[in-house]
Amino acid sequence: MRRPREALAALLLSAAASAPLAAPSAEAPTRPCRIEGVPTELACGAIRRPLDPARPDGPQIEVHYLVIPALARNKRPDPVLLLAGGPGQSAIQVAAATLPRLSRLNHRRDLVFIDQRGTGRSAPLECPDERHLPLAESLDPQAQLQRLQQCRTALERLPHGDLRFYTTTIAMQDFDAVRARLGVASWNLIGASYGSRAALEYQRQFPQHVRRSVLDGAAPPDMVLPASFSTDSQAALDAVFRACEREAACSRRFPQLRATWGRLLQGLPRQISMDHPVSGAPQRFTLTREMLLRSVRAPLYVPALAAALPAAIEAAAQGRFEGLAGLSGALSGGKGARLAAGLHFSVVCAEDVPRLALAADAPGADFGRSDEQLYTQVCKTWPRGSVPAAFYTLPAAGSPVLLLSGGADPVTPPRHGARVARALGPQAVHVVVPEAGHGVMAVGCVRELVFRFIDRAADVAARALDAGCATRIPRPGAFLPPQPETRP
Q1: Where are the beta strands (DSSP E) in 110-225?
Q2: Tens digits of per-residue pLDDT, 362-414?
């Protein structure tokens, strides 16, 4: 799961969609199309759905989907459905970047990407891009809150702008309508981050149409996002400090890293000067504690980036903040990295924020309750959809489920995957990659495990995976910038 503040910088995958996806003819569920990043001809389609399921004759939206056909002529009848993260990511926009990781599955199975309602080309709920705003404006929480309020007002003027009808439950009913349109009896689900929550909800509503499920970074419906952000981010940051203390070279270079971090936090707010990470223009603004924590959280998603945090923190303590700024924006470049903020808040305000009083997560010592405060403020005026009580339940799985967790994940760490595995019962297999971050499927041999899990014919064989290759993947060593030579 990703916050729109970081999620512009976070995860998973990044690609750009191409020309407009036209609605199919009445005779066929798809028509030929192409998208940027994939050289071959693909198949695109759209299905009309009521904005409000209780009013089938009311306002309608189009839910767009993409099918990447199997390469083999004698293909399997059960496609693979990719459920995007966020909430707010466009599945079609990340298709090109995702395809290399699923190439073996695509040999015998179609791959299906559906833009969830509120994302991509399916009644999008997007707010203006903030990446080029002056840092003083883009990082100011009050300014961000005002921009979100203005965006909400603009979205509500759209023909599809009733924000109460963008919950995960309704979206999964759209997905099943696409399944029926494609003539598929059952398919295999792969959900990453928020996509795992969507997959669980689809599986709850339509278990008869699920053959296998892969949940990469389990984000169950009961995790209460704003509260869990603080707890899990703190654990990931503390792990960075422990790793440096255990690594001889890092501990020699930064022997007081924790203390340095503490002094840096205590010295805020303060005036700083630095170049804008996108435009390069000189900026001067007041750095607050929340801004600093935001810049540190983003690289925690990827251990290779987190490895540079000790050096960046040390430099920031000496007044040089360019390293932290570069790390925090390292994953924010592509179109697929952006979230539809309107969809994001429509989901979280309906499904998570009302349950904050039930959250058992203790706030992180450094991160505190800043996430909870932001979401609470936004959701005070955000229209709230109706969520059925059953949404928060996890019925025993009727088909095999593979859960993947990264031990260094600051958003969906193994504690969530373990809870889901227990609830799903004997059909669930939980694989933890101790030193992986957010999104495990692209790490080392894990894509091969996913292929075997889905490809094996028998359920017993699918669950009998040897995941030893994944559990032995090491943590990247700390980045140590070269030091200037000292002359005698």
Answers
A1: 111-114, 187-192, 210-216
A2: 999 999 998 899 999 999 999 999 999 999 999 999 999 999 999 999 999 99
Coil, helix or strand at residue 85: coil
Minimum mean pLDDT among 18-27, 122-131, 232-241, 305-314: which range? 18-27
User: What residue ranges in 160-281 does DSSP mark as E strands?
Assistant: 187-192, 210-216, 270-275
Question: Any idea what the Cα angle at residue 477 is, between residues 476 and 478, rounded to 5°?
Answer: 120
Q: Domain extents for the chain?
A: 4-133+163-223+390-471
Question: What digits encode the pLDDT tens for the residues 19-40?
Answer: 344 444 456 899 999 999 999 9
**Structure letter (DSSP) for residue 156:** H
CB 339 within 8 A of CB 333: no
Q: Are 410 and 237 in contact (CB under 8 A)?
A: yes
Each residue's pLDDT tens digit, 162-203:
999 999 999 999 999 999 999 999 999 999 999 999 999 999
* Residue from 300, 441, 340, 438 nearest 93 by CA: 340
**Cβ neighbours of 153 (radius 10 Å):** 11
Strand segments, DSSP code E, in 5-108 are 31-33, 42-50, 60-68, 80-83
Q: Residues 232, 464: contact at Cβ < 8 Å?
A: no
Q: What's the pTM?
A: 0.92
Alpha-helix residue ranges (DSSP H) falling in 303-340: 303-306, 309-317, 322-328
DSSP at 119: B
DSSP state of 259: H
What are the φ/ψ torsions at residue 119 (nearest 5 degrees)? -125, 160
Query: Residue 380: phi, psi to the nearest 5?
Result: -60, -35
Instruction: Please state which of the four CATH numbers 3.40.50.1820, 3.20.20.140, 2.60.120.40, 3.40.630.30 is assigned to the domain occupying 4-133+163-223+390-471.
Output: 3.40.50.1820
DSSP 203: H
Contact 237, 408 (CB under 8 A): no
Non-local CB neighbours of 11 within 8 Å, separated by 6+ positions: 2, 85, 193, 301, 302, 331, 337, 438, 439
Q: Which two tokens stand for residue 399?
A: 């088909």
At residue 443, the 3 state secondary structure works out as coil
Residues 6+ apart with CB under 8 A from 178: 45, 47, 63, 65, 112, 114
